[in-house]
Automatic annotation (TrEMBL):
<dbReference type="GO" id="GO:0016491">
    <property type="term" value="F:oxidoreductase activity"/>
</dbReference>
<dbReference type="InterPro" id="IPR002347">
    <property type="entry name" value="SDR_fam"/>
</dbReference>
<keyword id="KW-0963">Cytoplasm</keyword>
<keyword id="KW-0521">NADP</keyword>
<keyword id="KW-0560">Oxidoreductase</keyword>
<dbReference type="Pfam" id="PF00106">
    <property type="entry name" value="adh_short"/>
</dbReference>
<dbReference type="InterPro" id="IPR057326">
    <property type="entry name" value="KR_dom"/>
</dbReference>
<dbReference type="InterPro" id="IPR051721">
    <property type="entry name" value="Biopterin_syn/organic_redct"/>
</dbReference>
<protein>
    <submittedName>
        <fullName>Benzil reductase ((S)-benzoin forming)</fullName>
        <ecNumber>1.1.1.320</ecNumber>
    </submittedName>
</protein>
<dbReference type="InterPro" id="IPR036291">
    <property type="entry name" value="NAD(P)-bd_dom_sf"/>
</dbReference>
<feature type="domain" description="Ketoreductase">
    <location>
        <begin position="6"/>
        <end position="201"/>
    </location>
</feature>
C-alpha cells in the first residue's frame, strides 16, 4: 500500500447498499476490504477492472468473536500505514419481523449479534489495530429511522439499531479527545428507504404498516442503492463529519 491510500472496510459488501458503496469506492487512491457471507462475481470483476486493490473476505458476521479476529488479522497484515482508515458498518438483517409475543431466542440472538454485537466488537478491533497507523479514523454505522421511531412488528430491528446508535455515541464519548493525527469520528446514519433485497423482505412480511412499504415501491418512491451510496460517501467526506453523531440522509 502506498502512503496515499485510504483504507475502507465495508461490511455487507455482497448486495444492496454495501455493494453500491463498494462500487462507488472503486477510485484510485482507495484500498478496500470487503466482507459478507457470499460473493458478488460481477462486482469482483468490476473491481478487478478498476485496478483498485480490493480484498474480498467471506465471514459470517453473526459470530462476533471470529469477525473481530478476522478484522484484527486483516489490519495487522497491512504493511504500509494508510492515509486514513474508515470502517463502514453496513451489514444488517431485518428479520425476525413479528409481534413481541412471538420473539424466539433462535432468531432474535443471531439478529442482535449481526446488527449490534458484531459491529461493536469489530469497532473495538478497528480502533485498537488502527492506532499504530497514526492516521484519522472514521466509523460509519448504517442505522435506520427504525432506531429512532418504533415500527410495530420490528422490535428486534428497532432495538438493535437503537443500540447501535447509542454505541456510536459511546465511541465518540470515549474517543473525542484523541489527538491528531489519530482522531476518531463516528456517525450512525439512517439512509432512507432504499430499493434493496431488504425492502423485498419487508414487503413480503406480515406487520401492521406493510402496505406503506408496498406503496412506496409501487409508486417508485424508493431511493436506488447507487444514488444512496453516492450521497453516503459525500456525507462521509464532509469536513464536519462527526459533528452530528446520529443523522439521517433525509435531512439533506
Ligand atoms: N434498504 C433500506 O431501505 C434500509 C433502510 C434503513 C437502513 N438500512 C440498513 O442498510 C444496511 C444495508 O441494507 P440493505 O438494504 O443493503 O440490505 P440487503 O440488500 O439485505 O444486504 C445486506 C448485506 O448484509 C450482509 N449480511 C447480512 N447478514 C450477514 C452476516 N451474518 N454476515 C455477513 N454479512 C451479512 C449481506 O451479505 P450476505 O448475505 O452475502 O452475507 C448483504 O451484503 C443494513 O444495515 C440495513 O439495516 C436499509
Amino acid at each position: 500500500m502506498s502512503e496515499a491510500d485510504h483504507l475502507y472496510i465495508i461490511t455487507g459488501a455482497s448486495r444492496g447498499l454495501g455493494a453500491a458503496l463498494t462500487n462507488a469506492l472503486l477510485v484510485p487512491g482507495n484500498r478496500l476490504v470487503c466482507v459478507a457471507r457470499s460473493r458478488n462475481l460481477e462486482l469482483e470483476r468490476v473491481a478487478t477492472m478498476s485496478g483498485v486493490p480490493v480484498a474480498w473476505h467471506l465471514q459470517d458476521l453473526s459470530q462476533p468473536a471470529s469477525a473481530a479476529g478476522w478484522l484484527s488479522s486483516v489490519l495487522e497484515s497491512q504493511d504500509q500505514p494508510p492515509a486514513s482508515a474508515t470502517l463502514i458498518l453496513n451489514a444488517g438483517v431485518v428479520e425476525p419481523i413479528g409481534p413481541v409475543s412471538r420473539l424466539q431466542e433462535s432468531t432474535l440472538l443471531p439478529h442482535l449479534l449481526t446488527n449490534l454485537a458484531t459491529p461493536m466488537i469489530m469497532t473495538g478491533a478497528f480502533l485498537e489495530r488502527t492506532e499504530k497507523f497514526d492516521c484519522p479514523r472514521k466509523v460509519l454505522a448504517i442505522s435506520s429511522g427504525a432506531a429512532r421511531h418504533p415500527i410495530e412488528g420490528w422490535s428486534a430491528y428497532c432495538a438493535g439499531k437503537a443500540g447501535l446508535d447509542m454505541f456510536i455515541r459511546s465511541v465518540n464519548a470515549e474517543y473525542a479527545g484523541t489527538p491528531a493525527p489519530r482522531t476518531v469520528r463516528a456517525v450512525a446514519l439512517a439512509p432512507g428507504v432504499v430499493d434493496t433485497g431488504m425492502q423485498d423482505t419487508i414487503r413480503n412480511a406480515d406487520f401492521a404498516q406493510v402496505q406503506r412499504f408496498r406503496d412506496l415501491k409501487a409508486n417508485q418512491q424508493l431511493a436506488s442503492a447507487e444514488e444512496t451510496a453516492g450521497r453516503i460517501l459525500a456525507y462521509l467526506h464532509r469536513p464536519d463529519f462527526g459533528s452530528t453523531e446520529l443523522d439521517d440522509l433525509r435531512n439533506y
